[in-house]
Every structure is written in C-alpha cells, then in structure tokens.
Design a protein that fits this description.
With 276 residues, the chain is mostly beta strands. It has four helices and 14 strands. The model has no long low-confidence stretch (mean pLDDT 92).
Amino acid sequence: MPQTDSSPSPFETASAVTRAEGGGLVADLDPGWDVGGGILNGGYLLATVARAAVLDSPHPHPVALSASYLRATGPGRVSLTVTPATAGRTLAHSSVVLATADGPTLAVQATTATLGDEAPEYSSPAPAVPGPEECLPAIAGADLGGHPVPQVGIRDRIETRMDPSTAGWAVGQPSGEPVLRAWVRLAGGEEPDPFALVLFADVLPPAVWEIGRFGWAPTVQLQVLVRALPAPGWCLVESRANEVAGGWIDEDYRIWDSTGRLVAQSRQVARAPLAR
C-alpha cells in the first residue's frame, strides 16, 4: 500500500544523506541492497549520490547523472563530497564523490533541475507487455523452472515481475536475444519518484542472461537521464544489450511509468559475466 504518513519510506531511509558533525555529508549504506558478495547495487548507490547532489542545489530533481564506478562498494558509513559548478534559473551542475574509509568508490557528474509531467511532443511507444499480474515474480531464491533467482537483497527490496517473452533464462530456455523487460516497484510501498527512477536504471539482471551468459556483470560507467515525474504505480523497464565482445557488454535502459510515459533512460558499460 502507498505510504500514508510523513515518516521516511524504507527507500528514503536506506538512501538518506545527512550532514556530519563538523561539516561534510555522510550516508549509512544499507546491506539489504546488495547484488551478492556484500556488493551494493549500482542504482542504489547512484540514487544516494543523487540525494547529495540536490541537497544544496537550487533545483530539487536529478535529471542527468554520469557515474564512474571506481571499485565495488559495500555497506556502512560513507562520505559524499559535492563540488558545485555553475547554477542558473533552469539547471545546476556539480560533481559528487562517494568514498569509504579506503578511498573513493564512485565519481559522478550531476545535473539537477525541476521536472514536470507535461505531455511529450513526440515519444516512441512502450512495448506491448502483459500486466504485472500476468508476469513472473522474480523473488529472491525462487526457482521459476530453470535458472533460480539469485538470493540477493536487491530482489527483496524491489518487486519485479518479468515479462515471460524475455524471461527464457528463468525457465532454462534463453531466447538468444539479450533483452529483458519487467514491471518494477519499490517493495516498501512508496510510489516512484525521480530518485526511484535512478535506482530502476540498474535494477534488472544482466541482459546477457537471455543469451545464457550468467553471473555478475560489474558496472564500469552508467549514465542516467530522468525525463519526467512518474505517475503512481508500476514502472515498466526494458534493458537491451547491443554487443557482447572482448569481455565487455553495454546495456540501454528505457523506463515507462504506469501511464506509458517514458520517464527515464540509461546507458551503461560493464564487464561481461565470466560464467557461461
């Protein structure tokens, strides 16, 4: 059910950024947002950085983020250093570095602005996908008849319903085309906002699972565009890899809200999974 009080939602709490005594910004990264091996999901980390970017910005929303993942980040206390750049009436720029006690792990160029929900002049249509109730629930540990859903925290924090037409990997029959689609929403019950869209921009299993290439695909660089304020309800996410070569993969994401409006996009380059 949607949140009905003013207390922070589970996602807001997990990605909160606060001011430290003596200055600076800190966050306590939640271990429940892992992708295995104590490594936190890249979208979760980037959403936390986005909250730091808007904290002192004249604008409330992240609209463009370009992130370099310097090394894997685990749970616990981190610092966030925001370096403001130019700021104007419609947008502002900054750079943000997230660091653990061992040094920086994530460096981000951020643009903030004020998003609306105006109808687009033109938009390519969302793909035809069955409703969430007709799709496959990707619950941590579930065996959907083939490759089991990994026991990782991110699968418990985000409710995910996989489109059967792009979930051949889950039933032991990968299609051979690296495309995944799924309906997603926060398991804590809160409605999507621009920070949730940043999270959703890295939420699906690697698209190369649909060509039988299983395993972890660590993100090296991720660019996210938030296009509009999302409507309440489920978001539809599509991930597509264009080439798998030389140990590298790319993924293009498109995200639509419950009305079919394109509300976010992303592109990333990652290392290809080692397992086959």
